[in-house]
Amino acid sequence: MAEKPVDSLSESEAEAELKRLAEEIAEHDRRYHTEDAPVISDAEYDALARRNLAIEERFPALVREDSPSLRVGAAPAEGFTKVRHAVPMLSLAKAYTDDDVTDFIERGRRFFDRDKDLDIAFTAEPKIDGLSASLRYENGVFVQGATRGDGTVGEDITANLRTIADIPARLKGSGWPEIIEIRGEVYMTYAEFEALKQRSAAVGGQDYVNPRNTAAGSLRQKDPSVTASRNLKFFAYAWGYTTADPAPTQYDSVQKFAEWGFKISPLMVRAKSVDDLVAQYRLIEEQRSSLGYDIDGVVYKVDQLELQRRWGFVTGEPRWAVAHKFPAEQAMTTVQKIDIQVGRTGTLAPVARLAPVTVGGVVVENVTLHNEDYIKGLDSTGQPIRDGIDVRIGDTVVIQRAGDVIPQIVSVVIDKRPPDAVPYEFPHTCPICGSPATREINEKTGKEDSRRRCTGELICPAQAVEGLRHFVSRGALDIEGLGAENIDTFFNAGLIKT
Fold first, then answer.
1. Average pLDDT value for the chain
2. Beta strands in 220-302 (DSSP E)
């Protein structure tokens, strides 16, 4: 069902919509910042945030205390000492088109219009897709490191950050301030990610989803030796609290970081115009696949620090910076077969097995098809998706990693559909235990649920095993060393049961 235009909302509708958006965005913030497990793309998240802001601008009296526009991220996870940032770690405004970049530049020129002779310069640099960290140096010595957290309070991960070779224990050279908080991004290269996956698979360990989540999880290990084994990297690009500016400009300050022993992006440049910025965006986009690590856009900043201070901040974001996001990378492949997996609650979850294809530096071989209706080309409300075209075995499909994280099918190339491809028949019985698989009626809506569930419950081996896996998982008893492979082995040998 299409959303009602903001201009058409009544005050009561707007109030209800703001409540829904606050709850939904808070949940996505928690999944991204605390669990490192996003379930929607960046573009989908930003659409929610933009709608929330548009409603607030039309109904300013309805702005909630828990409004997403008033916060940056999610609260820090439990388990680490909390650190309050002396200078908040803010998020950035987003740009998706060249026109958005033009608007950003023009806002700056209008703001400084009274200074007719003012020569505004900008910087452009890749937006690394990792985990933000703040490193406090006192008299050149690294004394504390923290995650971004909610932007105001982060987690003390000093011991883990000390294991990263790109982070100097003592600054090199001279001229650094008495106290400075160097900020940047911790990330994992594609090569290290694939090596870690292979090492984990060899011992029956966990399957890692993507480099960004893996880097974040590696930083939150209780044992620093685990972090050390992950070979994480760090790029420095900003600073928080400092007793003195590193240099008069953003560009020269970052060059100072390199003199002090940090890795900085070799693709950072100065620019004077929209054309210059967009040209660097295109160049970085072209080189994206060959960098060896994830980036998801290009960040533009006003270069002169004095102008940054004069332009200031708004709603948790600096006015003087914007992130120009890349569109999700796409690739074409074929559906080789469709498997049905049975979850802990009995849900039959279809998975498309694809001819392996590389998207954004990651090899994709599987993609979820969610449920029976999704395969048919319908969303959970019965509205068409993919132009209402169903997915069939043998189809050529276009896939992308939503938010450069979660693989999804964007479209079916109908012109390439094989003549013998037939509509997929979703099973009405559980493929594991043979019990009927039904679609229940939703008590709230009175409509048929889009998910089909096995009715076998614990007589179904798949549900029993998934239940046992959950029982020993980190979210339940958290039994260290007892993973999914062990549970499968013990269950199949008859050593454990539900």
1. 87
2. 233-242, 269-271, 295-302
One-letter amino acid for residue 93 of the chain: A
Measured between alpha carbons, how far is 324 from 296 in angstroms, rounded to an integer? 9
Compute the distance between CA of residue 142 and CA of residue 179 in angstroms, rounded to an integer.
Answer: 10
- For residue 11, count other CB atoms closer than 10 A to its CB: 11
Instruction: Dump pLDDT digits (tens) for 143-199.
Output: 999 999 989 999 999 999 999 999 999 999 999 999 999 999 999 999 999 999 888
Distance of CA 488 to the CA centre of its chain: 31
Contact indicator for 13, 58 with CB cutoff of 8 Å: no
Secondary structure (3-state) at 47? helix
- Measured CA to CA in angstroms, residue 200 lies from 39, 186, 483 at distances of 24, 21, 12
Q: Where are the beta strands (DSSP E) in 395-455?
A: 396-402, 406-412, 437-438, 453-454
Which residue among 127, 233, 256, 325 is the active-site one? 127
Active site residue 127: yes
Q: What is the pLDDT of residues 207-232, one digit of tens each?
A: 787 888 899 989 988 888 889 999 99
